[in-house]
Amino acid sequence: MRVEPRSTVPLWLILSAPMAAIVLAFLSCSLLILWTGSPVLAAYGALLRGAVGSPFALSETLTRAIPLILTGLAVAVCFRAKLWNIGAEGQFYGGALVASLLGTAGLSLPRPWLVLVLLLAGWIAGGLLLWIPAWLKTQFQVDEVVTTLLLNFVILLGISYLLEGPLKDPLALGWPQGRALAESALLPRLIPRSRLHAGLIIALLAALGVWGLEQFTVWGLEMRAVGANPEAARFLGIPVQGVILYTSLLGGGLAGLAGACELLGLKGYLTLDLSPGFGYTGIVVALLAQLHPLGVVGAAVFIAGVYVGADTMGRSLGVPTYLADVIVAAALLWMLVCMGLARYRLRWD
To answer: Within a 10 A sphere around the Cβ of 81, how many other Cβ atoms?
Structure first.
């Protein structure tokens, strides 16, 4: 048996790979459900009802998908230019921290302008946090995988110190959390009596904007060229280092925007449990979407639905909720297998 690359990969094969990966992930995880003694179809039925079975369930899924769309875009943009951003979690918290600082500083601005300023501040903070590793990469060839990963811990430990000290809300009964933002700084709800907020519109516009940037602008062409072959891009006169630095500001900014949206849309105050790992899950979202900005939206909604639906599955049938993590991980593994089979052909001699 030998493996050889396909000369051309049909579009239908690329599009069907994510669907096949999801189906195979659910099939393989059925064994774990059987192991718990629960019926598979009933368990997946409960998961589906919990994710999209009612307007409330759908709103919860979309609410969970908002930060995943933005962090998925943050990772996809960087990976497209071969900038391996593993620090979306830290950039997420960096954006939330700066938005919290400005939001509790008593800025006297009309509500739309105040919200816009806080979102932009989160964007800039996240962008700068990724610009530093990108600059180290371009100037000194420092591995950005290491620097972005380590920055996550630096930022989280720094925020932990701030929430236990200078930024601790004296009215929080001892809990380590920041001061609450003013009502005028919060994002409006899209549906009354639900948690779905205007961050969904921001996330969808961001996905559309990134797709347009990659498809119709010179910068997008340069990003794809640098990601495909940096040496060839340099030979063609493309400023590779500049493209990487600009891409870091865009990618990190999207992760910072995710943190600001989550702060302004849901919590209203800064805590260390603002993210259950949105930055790391964004990597899975981006890979499931094959780095396509519009595919990120679908991948984020799928993963959000799995996590939200797993709660219902656990309550109704007693299936452990950590099965959601297994399904997401299995989907990613099967995705890699399916994409490998799409790009390479097995030959039997």
So the answer is: 27
Neighbours of 58 (CB within 10 A): 18
* Integer Cα distance of 187 and 321 in angstroms: 30
State the first-to-last Cα distance of the chain, in angstroms, to the nearest integer. 6
pLDDT average per 10 residues of sequence, the chain (349 residues): 77 82 92 89 92 93 96 95 94 96 87 94 96 95 93 95 89 84 91 92 97 94 91 91 95 96 93 91 92 94 94 86 89 87 78
Nearest C-alpha neighbor of 255 from the set 237, 279, 222, 285? 279
Could you tell me if 83 and 144 are in contact, meaning their C-beta atoms sit under 8 angstroms apart? yes
Place of tokens 């307007």: 55
Q: Identify the residue whose tokens are 């990601």.
A: 227
Question: In three state form, how does the secondary structure of 188-222 look?
Answer: CECCCCCCCECHHHHHHHHHHHHHHHHHHCHHHHH
Q: What angle do CA 321, 270, 170 make, to 5 degrees?
A: 120
Tokens of 180: 């609450």
In angstroms, the CA 214 to CA 77 distance is 9
Burial class (CB in 10 A: 0-12, 13-18, 19+), 72: buried
Angstrom distance (rounded) from CA 167 to CA 181: 13
Closest CA to 291 of 346, 223, 235: 223
Cα radius of gyration rounded to whole Å, the chain:
21
